[in-house]
Amino acid sequence: MPDILQPLAFARGPAIKNRFALAPLTNSQSHADGTLSDDEFHWLVKRAEGGFGLTMTCAAHVQRIGQGFPGQLGVFSDQHLPGLTRLASAIKANGSMAVAQLHHAGMRSPAALIGETPVCPSDNAETGARALSTAEVEQLVEDFVAAAYRAERAGFDGVEIHGAHGYVLAQFLSPEINLRDDRYGGSPENRARIIFEIISGVRTRCRPDFSLGLRISPERFGLKLMEIQALARQVLAEGEIDYLDLSLWDYAKEPVEEEHKGRTLMSYFTELPRGEVRLGCAGKVMSGADVRACLERGMDFVFLGRAAILHHDYPMRYAADPDFTPIALPVTQAYLRQEGLGPAFVTYMQGWKGFVVEAPVTEAAE
After folding, report:
1. What is the CA radius of gyration of the chain?
2. 209-222 pLDDT tens trace
3. What does pTM read for this prediction?
4. pLDDT tens-place string over residues 83-95
5. Under CATH, which number does the domain 20-326 receive?
6. Are the CB atoms for 274 and 236 separated by under 8 Å?
7. Contact 4, 18 (CB under 8 A)
8. Cα dist. 339→44, 300, 309, 342 in Å?
9. Where in the chain is CATH 3.20.20.70?
């Protein structure tokens, strides 16, 4: 098993000083126009200060109409460059790799938030989303690539393409959602075409040593495990990305599809030849034992979400105590503020059941 506290090199871009990565986490702290706020800057830089080898932004939308939640960081306009530049510089100054995650919510963009009908690979009655034209799909590819180049100009070491969690790229992958009959629909190869075009575009436009990752989720949202495994097999074989980020919900879980139970979901990916591409995962990685279990089972590094919210200095705590276990939930609002979360982020976390201590209910005055 690789040493969690030892550096990890990638085919392109800088090595990371340890195997700890900050997962891309929704925090609702950016300004309404997608520009970086001081609260979001503070939250992210505090994780770099806390020893994370890789610090990744929240999902940053590549088109205005791709916004998925209030207070989302934007990377679709040059107006975002000053904030992104400030952020990348501060992350790197603390010895952490600076990565921006590129995102588009597709049919999951709330119409009330974006001010128009959301878009999807196909018309979607459940969400009211409309189908993208072929030309609009081509523009979407271009906007992902342009956002990657913008992140490079801002000084980031690399970007991660968000192809998970039922957002627009996962919508293309889903045979239930993607009912297109052009070159972006039909066969699994056609449904995955948009992802490979984005990867190719980033490689063409950005510098040779610009780091590129891809996040996928292997199930839910109409996805089929064997199709996602085949996608992973191809991206690993082609070697155009530097790491594959698996969002597993729970690193120890079995697949939801009955015919594939009997082994862990993770194992369907660790068994694949990976060449020089690194493999990371997220999903209930909390204790030091969890971190070691992921690496023992074939991961090269781990993405921490909830554990990183609870402890900005998790890597340092692990170095001091390999059996470190995060503070028990729920925690107070004051504790989260102490860990670098701004008011909007604390409010967002109150929506996570059992995470934040509920305020006592006071009886109304008679």
Report:
1. 20
2. 999 999 999 999 99
3. 0.97
4. 999 999 999 999 9
5. 3.20.20.70
6. yes
7. yes
8. 11, 27, 7, 9
9. 20-326
